[in-house]
Amino acid sequence: MNAITKSAKGTAPGDGHSYRMPLPRLRLTPDVSHGPLDGAWWPRCDALELELPALVGSLDPSIGTITRVTVGTAAWPDAPQEVMAPGHVIEVALSNGAAEMHAITVDCGTVGRWELLVVPPDEPAGTAALLLTAASDPENPLSAPRLLALAESGLDGQDTWESEGGAGPR
Question: What is the distance in angstroms between the CA of the first residue and the CA of the last residue of the chain?
């Protein structure tokens, strides 16, 4: 699945005053991931109750019903315990672990779970695009915190990023 960047058009039928969140900025690994991440998501704001339904609605229905997500309390300090998604409720679990600080785990019950890097909403577009691409590379060996740390180090971190298997030429 490629990054989705275009906005949802129009309003709900019969309601000229409603607002729908734009489609999420998301990139998933094609087929099977061999690294710690299965892709990346770049939300527009830090309101999980607004962002999560759009994310869930954009995922392939064949992965099953998303029943639970785990997010880091540092990134989502005001996250609710439940979020309404199209047709069901999603349980939100909070974690203080370092690995979850910049990630979201999407759990589909018996079908599987996916670990996504969460690119901070205020990340510059160029850096966010790089992170979306790197995290969705099936051969990416880097965790969410490590990818973000390298991105924050700027050009000085490029050689390290590539030496660790990140977005360099193959």
Answer: 21
For 104-149, write each residue's pLDDT tens digit. Answer: 999 887 677 889 999 999 999 999 999 999 999 998 999 999 999 9
> What's the DSSP call for residue 24?
P
Please, where are the H alpha helices in the chain?
48-58, 125-136, 144-152, 158-163
Tokens describing residue 55:
């994310």
User: What CA–CA distance (Å, rounded) separates 27 from 132?
Assistant: 6
d(CA 161, CA 163): 6
Beta strands in 62-165 (DSSP E): 68-72, 82-85, 88-95, 103-107, 113-118
Helices assigned H by DSSP within 79-124: none
- Using CA atoms in the order 162, 1, 24, 44, what is the torsion angle rounded to 10 degrees? 0
> How far is C-alpha 45 from the chain's CA centre?
12
